[in-house]
Every structure is written in structure tokens, then in C-alpha cells.
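Propose amino acids for all 434 sites.
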């Protein structure tokens, strides 16, 4: 343990009366220090038991800082509010990956690198076409991210800096293309190819919505609003999908396989799939008048208020505050969405109700984002896909930090075994209990 520990935790094992000093460092004790606490020499020693990692730090990270009580979110030290106000999504992606915001020359070079990699191999279209017309785009996205691994076998060289950087650029560049292709397939529209004249987000809108016009011109307010939404989704420290990205990366799989697994986790309705569930919930409520009845069902424990609550934020999700502001700007262009009225009433009722205050349930990043996406013309099934596009730089930054961390090795938790003790098959048995 290094010299700057914050003293030690003194523990006495009542089983043996022995006392131990567990060094405290950076506000934590090392779980492996518990192994010295034994009742006999052949005892394995104590473990820490922490289902869902409610209180376990899996890594040391310099990427994102969150203070759940104060509603603080910073990427590499910069407050999310400032980045949302002044940076582009590509600049924030650069920041997450490199630790510093790019200067003008670096930003231009980075944007050009990404722009030059937006195309996917033509064969990708062949297996997208193999999906059923109503295949959920997240199923297509997870599959096509994994498929990129087969086009770039050199991506397995994860210790080669140049090759690692090349895959990072490719994945950030191709996510919008894969996402848009999944949408166009579902709609039965021809694929719209990347337009290098447009910004990262403008090009995504182009590939999504270009029809017969010779050149697609994104609506500037919507282009900026979506770019900010991507910024707000870019990383969130050790969330479920980032944990998956690190765990798969710890086995030294290539980054496409790790990202496909992370996207699969993100798809879960408790995680990035929540924005899709929020829209279904608002449509099920149907009117402002029916909000109290729905809230009563939530309080009876019959169902969860999707878009509310968070493992870390126990006051407010700073991203939700910014997204709510974006909603007003978007609806200026698209016209007001009646679901916003239901969402605002739901928030008003919930925040004034003891149940939600007691359970520390406040709107999270998913509560308002879905309404904005719908107003922009995205179908509900595309909402988690949009979350994934934004989250890719964070996944890649977490993945790279994990594989370069000398303290890390293959993720392999232990367990508390509660199953059957030793038992034998009865003589001549064909298996199965007699
Ligand atoms: C994201 O980790 C991240 O950073 C995630 C994310 C990111 O950027 O990566 O921020 C993105 O995933 C946001 C969360 C999106 N999910 C939802 O909106 C789904 C609805 N919310 C939840 O299911 C829940 O709040 C979680 C999953 C977000 C957090 O769950 P926790 O911290 O594990 O809390 P819990 O499930 O143990 O619930 C604690 C209590 C329970 O009540 P009791 O059993 O103790 O009586 O609060 C209740 C829960 O029933 N509760 C809710 C609720 N969320 C928790 N009750 C009603 N509605 C809800 N939304």
C-alpha cells in the first residue's frame, strides 16, 4: 500500500479475537485485505459480498466523476453543463478518450479522421437485409457492431496503440451508419450513404431521413440539440454497460465484441432501454387527467415509473435538467408534443409526493430524451440506438483505460456457494435423484 493511505480500519474478528489493520486508501479498503481474516490456517479468509456492486469500486478511473447527492457530472473534470453549452459531441469524444479537449488543429484532424471512416463494408447491408422487417434496431445494431470484428481482425492486437486508435475511430465513425441503416431497413427505404460535407450529427440525420432530395440539409436547431444529447449520453462512469465493456475487454476480446456486449446491456429496460419505455408509459397514461391514477399504481408497487430513479443520483440527474431545456428549443421547431404535457404533470405530481421523495426518485436522463427524439421524427425503437451512439466514446474510453491499467486482470468475481453439498449417484443409476 502506498504511503499516502488515510490511516487504517481496525477490525477485530469475534470468532478468534484477533485484530487486523486494513489500510484505507482513496476512501476504500482493498477487498483482498480481508483474506487475512481467517479462523484457521487452511481457511480461505473473508470475502466481501456485494450483489449488483452496490458498494464496490471495480477500478480506479480518471474519466468521469459523479456526485449523486450534489447532482454533479464531469467528464475529465469539466462540468457537463459547460460541455453541453460550448462543445461538440466529437470534441467531447476526443476529451473522454485523450483526457484533454482538442485545440483547433486537433479538432479538425479528429473530425476528418472520423469523417473518413463513416462507410461500412457493402456486405454489412446483406446481413442487415437478412433481418425481419420488424426486427428491433438494437438487435441489428448489436449484431452489426460484432460483425465489424470480422472485417477488422487486426483489432485483436489490443496492445498496439496505433491499431487500437484505428478501431476507436472506426467505431465512433460507423455507429451512426449502422444505426441509420438499421432504421432504413425497418422502413423499407434504400440506404442513404454518408455525406462528408456534413457534421457528425448532421450526417447521421442525413443517413436517417434523406429521401429524394439531391442533398440533405439538417435543420440546425435539431442538429445541435441531437449533438448535445449525444454529449449528455457520452459517458457515466461505471454504469451497467460500461462495466460490461470493461469485463469483456478484460478477457482481451477485441473492442467490437466488447462494444456489442455493452450495447446488449444498454438495451435493457432498466438501463438505456428506459427511454423507449418512457414513451410507452406516457402513451399508456394517455392524458394529464390520468396521471394521478398511474402514480397511485406506482406507489402500490404495481409498476415502476420509467425514466425515474437512479443508482447514483439521489437528488437530481443534471442531464435531465439540460434535456428539459433542449425540449423547449426542439418544440419551437417541431411543434409541441402532447406527451410533454403528460411528462411535466407526471414530474410535478411525483416530485410533490412523499413516496418518490422517500425513495429519492427523480427524473433521470431517459425521462425527457424520448419525447425529444419522437418530436424529431425518430421511432420509439430507435431511442436506445441513439443512446448507444452517444455512449460509444465513453465505452471506448473505459475499455482502453481498463486494458492499460496495470492493476487490472481478467474480471472473475467470486461467489458465496449456497448449493448442494457433496453427493454421489447411486450404484447403477442412470442419473437423476432416486
Ligand atoms: C440509466 O448507471 C447509470 O449511470 C445508468 C445511466 C447511464 O447514463 O448509464 O444513468 C442510464 O440507465 C438511467 C436509468 C434508466 N432506468 C429507468 O428509468 C428505469 C426505472 N428506474 C429504475 O428501475 C431504478 O431506479 C434504477 C434501475 C435506475 C436504479 O435502481 P436501483 O438503484 O438498483 O434501485 P432499486 O431498484 O433497488 O430500487 C430502490 C427502491 C425500490 O423500492 P423498495 O423495494 O426498496 O421498496 O426504489 C424503488 C424500488 O421499487 N424504485 C422505483 C423506481 N426505481 C426504484 N419505484 C418506482 N419507480 C421507479 N422508477
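Proposal:
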Amino acid at each position: 500500500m502506498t504511503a499516502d493511505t488515510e490511516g487504517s480500519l481496525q477490525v477485530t474478528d469475534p470468532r478468534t479475537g484477533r485484530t487486523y489493520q486494513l489500510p484505507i486508501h482513496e476512501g476504500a479498503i482493498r477487498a483482498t485485505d480481508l483474506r487475512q481474516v481467517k479462523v484457521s490456517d487452511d481457511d480461505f479468509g473473508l470475502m466481501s459480498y456485494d450483489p449488483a456492486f452496490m458498494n464496490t469500486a471495480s477500478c480506479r478511473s480518471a474519466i468521469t466523476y459523479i456526485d449523486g447527492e450534489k447532482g454533479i457530472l464531469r467528464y475529465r473534470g469539466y462540468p457537463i453543463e459547460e460541455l453541453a453549452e460550448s462543445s461538440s459531441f466529437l470534441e467531447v469524444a476526443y476529451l473522454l478518450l485523450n483526457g484533454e479537449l482538442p485545440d483547433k488543429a486537433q479538432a479538425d484532424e479528429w473530425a476528418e479522421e472520423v469523417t473518413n471512416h463513416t462507410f461500412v463494408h457493402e456486405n454489412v447491408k446483406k446481413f442487415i437485409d437478412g433481418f425481419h422487417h420488424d426486427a428491433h434496431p438494437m438487435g441489428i445494431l448489436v449484431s452489426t457492431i460484432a460483425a465489424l470484428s470480422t472485417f477488422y481482425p487486426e483489432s485483436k492486437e489490443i496492445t498496439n496503440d496505433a491499431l487500437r486508435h484505428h478501431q476507436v475511430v472506426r467505431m465512433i465513425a460507423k455507429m451512426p451508419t449502422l444505426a441509420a441503416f438499421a432504421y432504413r431497413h425497418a422502413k423499407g427505404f434504400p440506404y442513404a450513404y454518408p455525406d462528408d460535407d456534413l457534421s457528425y450529427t448532421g450526417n447521421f440525420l442525413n443517413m436517417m431521413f434523406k429521401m429524394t432530395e439531391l442533398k440533405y440539409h439538417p435543420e440546425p436547431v435539431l442538429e445541435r440539440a441531437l449533438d448535445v444529447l449525444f454529449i449528455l449520453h457520452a459517458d457515466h462512469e461505471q454504469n451497467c454497460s460500461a462495466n460490461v465493456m470493461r469485463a469483456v475487454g478484460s478477457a482481451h476480446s477485441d473492442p467490437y465484441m466488447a462494444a456489442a456486449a455493452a450495447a446488449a446491456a444498454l438495451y435493457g429496460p432498466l438501463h438505456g432501454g428506459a427511454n423507449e419505455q418512457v414513451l410507452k408509459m406516457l402513451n399508456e397514461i394517455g392524458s394529464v387527467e390520468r396521471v394521478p391514477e398511474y402514480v397511485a399504481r406506482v406507489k402500490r408497487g404495481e409498476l415502476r415509473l420509467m425514466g425515474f430513479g437512479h443508482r447514483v443520483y439521489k437528488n437530481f440527474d443534471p442531464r435531465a435538467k439540460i434535456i428539459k431545456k433542449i425540449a423547449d428549443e426542439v418544440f419551437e421547431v417541431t411543434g409541441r408534443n402532447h406527451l410533454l404535457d403528460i411528462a411535466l404533470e407526471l414530474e410535478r405530481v411525483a416530485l410533490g409526493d412523499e413516496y418518490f421523495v422517500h425513495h429519492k426518485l427523480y427524473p433521470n436522463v431517459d425521462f425527457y430524451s424520448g419525447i425529444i427524439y419522437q418530436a424529431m421524427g425518430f421511432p420509439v425503437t430507435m431511442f436506445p440506438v441513439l443512446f448507444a451512439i452517444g455512449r460509444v466514446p465513453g465505452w471506448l474510453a473505459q475499455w482502453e483505460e481498463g486494458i492499460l491499467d496495470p492493476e487490472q486482470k481478467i474480471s472473475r468475481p467470486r461467489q458465496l456457494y449456497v448449493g448442494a453439498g457433496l453427493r454421489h449417484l447411486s450404484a447403477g443409476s442412470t442419473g437423476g435423484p432416486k
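The pocket of s-citryldethia Coenzyme A is lined by residues 236, 239-240, 270-272, 274, 298, 304-312, 359, 361, 364-366 (CB under 6 Å). The longest strand covers residues 8-12.
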